[in-house]
């Protein structure tokens, strides 16, 4: 649960897109690439993958093995099973700002405390979790030109349970050069934070003081809709366009994020409580997102160009733009190199505030979570793919990620602190298909 709640919400949409689109993904790829060996009825195909992820400044590290199995049941009928295990450790920014004095915070459990040195960016080093996720999807023909799919997913962490169902349908027309697609997904999340869910804007208390914490789990529902069309332009290129809609209702706050309360000199306001003066954040209990996605793929003398653009906007006033570019250079022996560049930028949420001031009234909602701030991010990577003598495939990918936030306005003693530091991450993926 100490992972980003926004990410969890986004994953609901991403999962529906990936699972629901699986029925058409290979077909679309084959329209712009040489045909591969057809999977025989009754045969299984497997993918085993391993991801290593590590952030700079001793932040989060993750190890994620994934196992995917696909069986062809009949003509155009497939069963897909997927198992994912995440193991995460490290430290995560709490939302508090640094100070020229050491700061003491109570851990989420309420049973211990930790101290951040003077002039250091506060990180909560209790970040540790393991997630196990199971997903299944059944794709089947409805008619010669129509396919449908049904799927389900369940994911469990120490303090978070998520379950979802999805369905989709696609229709080919125009001599199978055009495909209409529609998908729907519903997810239910149950959140049971370590130490209890905090009261919105509740004051962090010393070790052993349970006030400002609620007992019992918190819930959230998410409904996602995806509409799209894929159009073959010619024998070597196609274009895809999607519209996505997401509506979530329930608990959206991150129970482990706080906001610093400062005096008129930019120092922590001293109210006599022997831990740093921070309040737990408060986010709206509803969120609606709209997304537009366009993708162009072209087969160029054995190589493949894959370019896409995504625009997302929501009622939290976050607008984001994503440009993604891949180019696969195919070697004479069938292996390939694929450089990858991705650029992302977003505006800040309307309730994002890097800190609170004691001499000002509390807003209705506020969060200092850096993921709700304005920032730019770029990913640069390279993938190498090779086939074995038996026809199986290895893929190796290394990517570097850099996030550059926009530094908020500062005053007084706060001017000596970096509120939103830049940070980097490295991602290594190994995949074997057989």
Portion of residues in beta strands equals over 45%
> Structural class, please?
mainly beta
SSE sequence, one letter per element: HHEEEEEEEEEEEEEEEEEEEEEEE
Spatial extent as radius of gyration? 24 Å
- Major beta sheet summary: 16 strands, antiparallel, barrel
Oligomer: single chain
Average pLDDT metric: 90
Strands of the widest sheet, in order across it, are 1-2-3-6-7-8-9-12-13-16-17-18-19-21-22-23
Q: How many separate helices?
A: 2
Query: Helix content range of the residues, please?
Result: under 10%
Briefly characterize the structure:
This protein is mainly β and 434 residues long. It has helices at residues 5-20, 22-31; strands spanning 44-55, 61-74, 77-93, 103-106, 113-116, 123-141, 146-156, 160-173, 178-191, 197-198, 213-214, 218-234, 237-250, 258-262, 278-280, 286-300, 303-314, 319-330, 336-346, 356-357, 375-387, 393-405, 423-433.
Can you describe what's shown?
The strands form four sheets. This protein has a 16-stranded antiparallel beta barrel with strand order 1-2-3-6-7-8-9-12-13-16-17-18-19-21-22-23. Strands 15-14-20 form a three-stranded mixed sheet, with no helix packed on it. The protein has 434 residues and is mainly beta. The model is unreliable at 1-36 (pLDDT under 50). The protein is elongated. It has helices at residues 5-20, 22-31; strands at 44-55, 61-74, 77-93, 103-106, 113-116, 123-141, 146-156, 160-173, 178-191, 197-198, 213-214, 218-234, 237-250, 258-262, 278-280, 286-300, 303-314, 319-330, 336-346, 356-357, 375-387, 393-405, 423-433. The chain has two helices and 23 strands.
């Amino acid at each position: 649960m100490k992972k980003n709640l926004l990410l969890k919400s986004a994953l609901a949409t991403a999962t529906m897109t990936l699972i629901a689109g699986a029925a058409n993904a290979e077909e679309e790829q084959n329209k712009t690439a040489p045909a591969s060996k057809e999977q025989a009825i009754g045969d299984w195909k497997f993918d085993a993958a391993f991801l290593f992820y590590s952030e700079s400044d001793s932040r989060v590290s993750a190890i994620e093995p994934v196992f995917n199995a696909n069986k062809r049941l009949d003509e155009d009928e497939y069963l897909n099973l997927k198992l994912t295990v995440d193991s995460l450790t490290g430290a995560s920014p709490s939302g508090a700002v640094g100070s020229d004095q050491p700061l003491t915070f109570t851990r989420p459990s309420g049973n211990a405390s930790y101290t951040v040195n003077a002039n250091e960016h506060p990180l909560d080093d209790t970040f540790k979790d393991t997630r196990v996720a199971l997903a299944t999807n059944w794709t089947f023909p409805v008619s010669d030109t129509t396919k449908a799919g049904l799927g389900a997913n369940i994911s469990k962490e120490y303090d978070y349970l998520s379950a979802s169902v999805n369905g989709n349908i696609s229709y080919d027309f125009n001599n199978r050069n055009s495909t209409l697609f529609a998908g729907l997904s519903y997810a239910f999340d149950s959140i049971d934070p370590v130490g209890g869910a905090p009261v919105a804007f509740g004051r962090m208390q010393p070790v052993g003081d349970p006030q400002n914490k609620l007992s019992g789990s918190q819930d959230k529902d998410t409904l996602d809709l995806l509409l799209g069309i894929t159009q073959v332009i010619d024998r070597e290129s196609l274009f895809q366009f999607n519209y996505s809609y997401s509506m979530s209702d329930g608990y959206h706050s991150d129970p482990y994020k706080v906001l610093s309360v400062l005096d008129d000199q930019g120092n922590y306001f001293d109210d006599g409580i022997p831990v740093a003066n921070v309040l737990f954040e408060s986010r709206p209990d509803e969120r609606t997102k709209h997304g537009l996605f366009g993708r162009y793929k072209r087969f160029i003398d054995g190589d493949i160009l894959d370019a896409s653009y995504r625009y997302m906007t929501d009622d939290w006033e976050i607008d984001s733009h994503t440009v993604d570019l891949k180019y696969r250079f195919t070697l004479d022996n069938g292996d390939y190199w694929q450089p990858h560049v991705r650029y992302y930028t977003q505006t800040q949420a309307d309730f994002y505030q890097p800190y609170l001031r004691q001499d000002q009234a509390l807003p209705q909602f506020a969060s200092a979570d850096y993921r709700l701030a304005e920032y730019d991010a770029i990913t640069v990577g390279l993938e190498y793919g090779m086939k074995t003598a038996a026809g199986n495939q290895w893929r190796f990918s290394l990517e570097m990620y850099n996030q550059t936030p926009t530094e908020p306005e500062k005053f007084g003693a706060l001017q000596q602190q970096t509120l939103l530091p830049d940070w980097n991450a490295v991602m290594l993926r190994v995949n074997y298909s057989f």
